[in-house]
Structures are given as C-alpha cells and as structure tokens.
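Limitations
The structure tokens in this dataset are predictions for the assembled complex, not deposited experimental models. Users should treat interface geometry with appropriate caution, especially where small molecules or nucleic acid strands are included. An illustrative entry is reproduced here so readers can see what is and is not provided.
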Amino acid sequence: MTLGSFDNAPLAAEPALPERQSQASQIWKRFRRHRLGVIGLCITVFFYAITLFVEVLAPQGADAYSTRHAYYPPQRVRLFLDDGSFQPHVLSYKVVFNYETGQRKFEPDPKNVVELGFWVKGDSYKWLGLIKGDRHLFGARNPRQKVFFVGADRLGRDVLSRTIYAARVSMTIGLLGVAISLVLGILIGGVSGYAGGTVDQLIQRFIEFLQSLPSIPLWIGIAAAIPSDTPPLQTYFFITVVLSVLGWTGLARVVRGRFLALKAEDFIKAARLDGCGTFRILLRHMLPNFYSHTIAVITLAIPGMILAETALSFLGIGLKPPVVSWGVLLQEVQNVRSMATAPWLFLPGAVVVVAVLALNFLGDGLRDAADPHAQ
Amino acid sequence: MKETLIDIKDLTVTFTEDKTRLVALDQLSLTIPEGKTLCLVGESGCGKSLTAKTILRVQGENARIENGAIDFRNEKGGRTDLAALDPKGKAIRAIRGDQISMIYQEPLTALSPLYTIGNQITEALRWHRRLSEKEARTEALYMLERVGMPAPEKRFHSYSFELSGGQRQRAMIAMALVCRPRLLIADEPTTALDVTTQAVILDLLKELQKEERMSMLLITHDLGVVADIGDEVAVMYMGEVVESGPVEEILRNPKHPYTRGLIASLPTLGGEDGQQLQSIPGSVPHLRNRTAGCSFASRCGLAVSEVCQVNNPLLEQIAADHSVRCHALQKTNWPRKATKTEARETATSKPDYCAPPILKVNGLSKHFLMSRGFFSKHKELRPLRGVSFDLWPGETLGLVGESGCGKSTLGQTILGLLRPTEGQIELQVDDGYVNLADMPEKQLKSYWRDLRMVFQDPNGSFNPRMTVFDIIAEVLRTSEGAVEKTAVNARVGKVMEMVGLNRDFLDRYPHAFSGGQRQRIGIARALAPMPRIIVADEPVSALDVSVQAQVLNLLKDLQGELGLTYLFISHDLSVVSHISDRVAVMYAGEIVEIAQTRDIFAAPKHPYTQALLSSVLEPVPRSERKRQPIRLGGAVPDPGNLPRGCKFRDRCAFAQARCASEAPTLNTNGLERAVACFYPLNKNEGQNGQGAHAWQA
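Predicted assembly:
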C-alpha cells in the first residue's frame, strides 16, 4: 500500500524560537489597546502626582484667608497688557454696590493689574511636612497680591488651592482604605477559598450578613463613636478603618472566587505532584496568578472609598475642618444661596467626578487586560 | 453531470492584526456538488471553519472578503453570489437557517440553556416558514423523531443541559434540518463525542442526507470520519486547497505530501507494534509567516527551495476529478532526493514480564459524596469500583473506555491526587512493596518522584507565571534530598534535550510554545525526577494528528531509552493500540476486559469491547472495511445510580436473565486475559457481529 510510504519526512524538527514575552508585558500590550483605560491611567497618575506636590502647586496656602475677598469670582488670565507687551496677568475686581437692588457686584478694574509669574514667592509652607519653602509653581509676582483662578469661598480662601490640598487627603484615604480592605479580604477570602467546606460556608454567610447591613447608618454609627476632640490625623485613620470595615467583603468574595477557580486548575495538581506543600502552592503557584486580577479589583475599589469619604464628610460625620478634603470643601455648598452666588464652589465636586471616572476606566482596562480569555 | 450547489471561486479572506494584513483564505476554489458530502480536512488553523462561516457570511467583523465569489444555486436554478450580499441584510438571512444551516462541534454551547429544545427547533420554522405555533410543533416533533431522539414529546420540553451528549447533538441536527436545508454545514460534528456515539451520529447524518437529498459540507480533522461519510474530499492547508478528489481515490492514492503525511501519521488499529509513526515535522505556521512560495514547503520532505519557496504551485488536475497543488508532482524531472531518512533506529524495549510487577493495584475504589446544597442529603457517586491490575516494568498498559467510565479517576487515584476509599496500590521498591493507598500525604510525597503524570491539556497544566525552567525544576526543588543548584540546571537541560527541545527555550513562558511543544514540556516535567512509572492522561487528544504522531513517537523512544512504564489513558483506540503492550477496557468504574493488545484487537471477548472496536473509523475506503459496525445505544450509567447486575446489560445485545441479577466478577491481576462477562464472545463471532452469535451455556 502506498499509504505508509511517506518517507521523506525529517523527524521532529521544531519551528523557530518562540517569542520571549512575560505575562506582564502581554497584559501591558492588551491594556494599551483599551483607549479609555489609558486615558484613565494618565488622569490617575496626574492626580496622584498632584498629591505629592500640593504645597508647590497650590498658588496659596490651604488656610490663607482674606475676608476682603469673600466670594471673590474667578479671575480670567489675560496675556497682554494695555501697552501691548506680553505679561500674563489678571485684573482685580472692584466691588460695585447697587443701591437699588442691594446687590454687590464684582467688576474687573483695569487699573489694578496683578502680574503673574512662575516660581514666585508666596505663602510659606513645609513640603510634606519636611522641607521649608515659600516658592509656588505659579501665582502673583507680588507676594502681597492675591490671585483667584477659580474664585474664593466665604472666608476669601482660594478654591483652587484648597481643592489641590484636598486631593492629598481624598485620594490617599482611598488607597489606605483599600490597603486595609485588601489585607482583610485576601486573608479571609483566601482561607475561605482554600479551606472550603464548613469554614467557607461560615465566612460566606458572615460576609452576606455584613453586606446586608445598610452602610450609611452603620458608618454614621461608627463615626459618631469617634470623640469630637480627636486630632485631625487620627480622625483620618479612624475614617479609613470605618470605610474598610465594609470594604473588605467585596474583595474577600473576589479572592475566594479566584482561589476556587485556581484550585481546580491542572497546574495546581501538577504542583502537588511536584511535592509542593500547602504554603508553597499558595505563595508560589497561586498568588502570582492573582496579582493582575487583584490590581484591577483594587483600582475599582478606590473610587468607592473616595465617594464614601466625600459623602461622610459632606454629611459632617467624616473629616472635619481644619482638615481639607473634597467632602469637607463641598460642605460649603450645602445651601442654595452659595449655589446661586458662588457656583465655583462646586469645583471639588467636579474633580471628584473626574477622579472616580478615571479610576473606574483604569480598573476596567486592567481587568480586561488581565483576563487571559479576552482577546 | 452532477449539479453544483455551491461554487466558490478565488475566495480571498483577510484579517487585520496589528495593522498587518493576514491572508486567511488564499484564492480558495471549491465546489459542493448537489446531494453529496464534501469533506474539508486539515489541521487546526488551516481555514476550514472560516470557509464554512464565510459561506454563511458569519465570518466575523475582522474578516474581510477581498476577492472572489460564492455562487449559490437556489431552488429555482438561479444563482446568488453570497459573497456580495450584505451580511446583515434580508437576502442572506432568508438563506441562513433555511437553505443553508449549520451544526457545531460543541452542542452544549451552541444550544441556548434558556430555551427548551422545542422552542429552539420551532424558531426557524416560525421565522422562515411563518408556521403557526401548532404546525411548527408538529413539524419539530416529527423532526425529533427522525433524528432518533428517544421520547421526543418529553424531550421537546427539555433544556439542553438535561440531555446527554449524543442527544444534544441529535437536537442540534433536528434544529438544523427542520427547514429542510439544501446544504448542511457540519463543523466537527462528532469531535466532542465518544467513538460509540460518533458512529451513531454519523450513521444518522448519512441516512438523513440520503433521504432529504441535501448536500453536506463536513469539516473534520479526522480522516476516519471522512472515509466513513464523505463522497468528495478537499484537503486544506493554510487557506488553500492542496488536494481534492473523490474520497476513495484520495485515500487510496494520496498524492500531495501533506495528504500523505496526514494519512501516515494516523496510528492504525492493531498496527504492528514497535513501529514508528510517520509524522509531518513542525506544525502549521502562523499566517504572518506566509511566503510567496508553496505554503507547505517549510514542512515538506520533497521541497526544493529554489522552486517551492519561490512559486506557489497551481491546483492542477492529474486525473479525472483528482487535483493536486504541488510542484513535485507536476514536473516529471523532479530531483529525487536521498529518500528514506532511514527507518529510525528505535531502542524498542520489550516489557520484562519475568520480573515482579512494578505496581500492583488491588480492589481500588473511590466514592464521592456529592453535596446537593446546604440542607439536602448527600448523594454517593462511585466512579471507581474495585479495580485491580498489575503493571510490569517497561510495559505500556492502555486504559480505554467512553467518557465517564472512570479512567481519569483511576489515574488520579493511583497518583494520590484523589485518596482511594478502598483497596491497595502497591509500588515495588528495593525491599518488596509499599502500599500507597493508606499512606499519609507527607510520606507519599517521596514516592511521587517514582510516579509521575502527563496531563491532557498542555495549556492548563502549566503555571502561566513561571518560566519553562521553573516549571520543570519545581519537582527537583521541592522533593526531599534537595538537589543542588548546578545539578538542577544540568538535569533540567538534559530532560529538555531528551524531549527534543532546545535548551535556549528554558527562559520562555509556556504560552510562547505551540501545542506540541507544550506537550513535550509536560513530558520533560514528568521526566525530571527520573521516574519509573508515568501516568499519561489523554496526552495526545488535544493535538493535531501530525503533532500527535510526533508525541507518540517521543513517548515510545523515551520508553526504550529509559525503560519507563506507562499507564496510558485514552479514549482513542487507535492510539492505544499503537502504543500499548496490554489494554484494559473500563466500563462504569470497572475493568471489563484486559488482555494483550494483539489479542484484544484481533478478537474482543466482551461485547462492550467489541462494540467500541467496531465504532472506530479507520481511514480506509468504505469498500475495504473489515469490521461490521455495531451500534451502541444509550450511555454510560450515572455513577450515582448504577443498575443491578452487569452494568453493561442495558446496552448489551446479548444480555440474558442472569446478567440482570448477578454481576460478573473477574480477577484482572496477572498477565492472563480476563473478561467480565458471563457469555464472552468467541473469535468468529467477534468478527461477524451479533448475527452469528451462539450462546455459550
């Protein structure tokens, strides 16, 4: 028969060298295709960069006030002086009182020019509480003049500066809260997934119980327990703990799910047959397969934390002045009057929206990229 | 003259990936004759499924038809060019599911779990034929009966997950045929099924095709299926037809080196032992690496680089109906290369049956308690019930059976991944035997260097975060008597070479390798601690035939060199018959027959073995078939609800009263042939099937 006479075949030649590409670089490659995710990443990195350099970036100090400038409206940056020479500047407002309606009106005063510049002297600060300085990235050239790019609040404090300062607290409270949740979540979820059986059942029912509690009243309850004379820094930590008490449950569920899925994989069986003990299987074989997924989950959990902090502080039970956070700043707009007369006070709210959306996009992008089944 | 139903001319379909244009179908021309079955064969990635999808215009958004026509002759004799239709338009939707319909490989995913079978079958009727609900129902029930669905009235209201694999495939066929299509496209319709079920489904397709006088386009990688059902065959490679013609002609007289390679790499049932399989080197290249020359040149033994790598040969007729695309066959003065890369010297080792067995398995059982929820009672599953056998050093014991018969459970229980409920697993060591069955896992670990496993899925069995080096070295690092670093390096490099891979690959991650290469890595991992026994659980069933042949050859070579003992688990009887010295047939958690490979394939004694064997489709023309087909109805019994008496009696053609009350027992230890049947078949009956069977008292 001719069937078997295929005798020219060279034996078992293998094709060219396979590509060297680590898992991380593959994820990065997939992530880059997710356009919204990349935008989210850029904005998120930008925000966290701001939190590092708030003192320098903010034109004024967080608590610098000037009653003269109460509800001062945003000032427009002009590039050329009247004589046509290039000099970025803003015009101060002069207050015109309308005696008929009884209203104050701010009108730009062409004679009162506030010249702007980079790396100018201004309010002195201690950068990250360590290095003394009085230089600001941009602001009024003359330290005795003030500039309000997006206006001032009822005490004449610069809204832009305060929003920048608030970013430090609000953005990091999310990180810290998620870190605590993550430790709890991985520990408890891991035990639940790895042990299985009764332990798993008990932990899962407990999580369900926690998740069924209405969150706002619970937070209010716990926050009320913080003595009102607690120093601001401690309040900050208390609040993160309060947020993580409920935050870990979601993470624990995700971790447990991953554990269960991984436990059934052939390569875990192979690791057992290689003689690995429980610990080695957990640390060397399971955890590395978790990283990408967990990072995505964390990214998606941070905005929740930011929103929760904002909500609590807005209601007056979270952080309190003199701490500046976006929620604290938003307390200023709790009444209709300020909304009508000084809409720029909403800036922190807009920033919260941008930050939360950016983190969500980033998390989505990471999740899709980390999923090995996605194309 | 046969009429053509579909005439594909110069069809070119491309993908865009990372801004490069990849040609998936390259000027493909095919004709599907009316009332006949055309088979598309080839390894995975050759564009078979894409061809089918393009005919239905569901090829996906990324695939672009650049050129060519798909001429479809409709009922009135007019012609429609399917390639020119709007893929979302009315015209193509009127054809899809009505004139042309399709069945898929995996019916569980192709059927919606949210609708009943009846609901899904009637949908096409109501949409295309505008039938009333009642008319559609009558029609659907008739169709279900036609496809041999047991109790169609009841099944009409079932959901897909309530049916067995074979029933699901029947339901899908009913769904595809209910509008009486003129073309049925079947994409690997039986690949996910057991051989016994496959045979039944293919019979059904043949019969329906004949009665309905429809055409069929059958996509398969299995030449046995082609031989069984095809009229015409087209062999595809990298989006081109390289050879086409009538099935009998192609099987008897294959010309193209690729076709010949495909046929030669198939292990044959009861083939001579010790023989190496011919294999096609390498694997299908990525579309990215397409060259101007013949696409097969890189793997072809006849290729002459000045010609084959420069020009792509044309498809030329070499006989009536037989066309080939190959330079070597079209030119008479083709240089004869030094043929015969000498039949490779293989160190075939004969198993040493005089020595004491290396592993003795005695009455091994595994029972599971299946929890059905928080408050309900547990259900006991018994996938393994008192299995016994001995394994001699240097031999290969093949373990076969349908899915769900307990083969994999047996493998995992022997290894200790599952702890046995009863029985002994005795491993031979220097001073006698140790029983692994009731050993605590800590102690068991030291024996895992002797007993290693090769997994089925070369994807899932590697940690994606570890390099190949770490994967292979893991066992050397964890086992006691920890090996030094330099020794680990040396050993890992050595096993890598043993399995035919380059040491330079060691710092790669597993996903960078092809399926065949991955399976080699899996074997290297098993070899790392110098084991004596390897349990291979379906090691080649996820691979293409040519790659499968490479891996089987490798396993045989390694056995010869290292004197390994294999427990080889597979559902594929041809593969088992090729590699095994002895074969054990499992059914419902028991061994029903065990014997030397030659004996069992020449004359099966258990009716189940006989039925299994007769269901195997060999790539020989239908007129040369040796075996009478026996078709098994039903399915393997649920391990949670086993019948009394002989577990096979419900499906057995020879069952007697005694079989219902009493279960046959047998001693499968030792080398003797053993059959768990009260009325074993004798040789002549085994050949002629049930008709001539005379009962033994």
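Some entries come with short summary sentences. For this one: The two ends of chain B are 57 Å apart (CA to CA).
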